[in-house]
Amino acid sequence: MISAVLPTVTPAATGGGASTAASQATSGSSFIDMIDSALRGVSASQNAAGTAEAGYASGAPGATLGKALVASDRAEVSWNATVAVRNEAVSAYQSIMSMQF
Q1: If exposure means fewest CB atoms within 10 Å of the residue's CB, which of 7, 25, 42, 80 is most exposed?
Q2: What CA–CA distance (Å, rounded) separates 16 from 81?
Q3: Dihedral sign, CA of 40, 3, 74, 55?
């Protein structure tokens, strides 16, 4: 389910692996875009869950408890995946910062 939160990075999206300064700047930009896209996806799933829950609570036509629960579970899974990725990034940063040169 993490693949639903984080898009796949292709070599074309990261500048094709070239080691020039221009491609490195593009690569950094692509990483930011990837993170932004992932966070927007999490936000969208949370908004969809809120809408589904509100629809069920108000008795909207077509709104069912099952749809509300599935939307809520999807939002929870995407949030947990985001937190796990953040924790791994922080752990990697701390490991790098504790290295002695």
Answers
A1: 25
A2: 27
A3: positive
pLDDT by residue, tens only, the chain of 101 residues: 444 444 444 434 444 444 444 444 455 578 889 889 999 999 999 999 999 999 999 999 999 999 999 999 999 999 999 999 999 999 999 999 999 88
Sequence-distant (6+) residues with CB within 8 A of 72 are 49, 52, 53
**What 8-state DSSP symbol labels residue 20?**
S
The DSSP 8-state label assigned to residue 7 in this structure reads P
d(CA 101, CA 6) in angstroms, rounded, equals: 33
Matching residue, tokens 């899974």: 77
Query: Residue 51: what are its φ and ψ, rounded to 5°?
Result: -65, -45
Instruction: Give the separation between CA 59 and CA 68, rounded to whole angstroms.
Output: 12
The whole-model pTM stands at 0.65
Taking the alpha carbons of 17, 19, 20, 25 in that order, is the dihedral positive or negative? positive
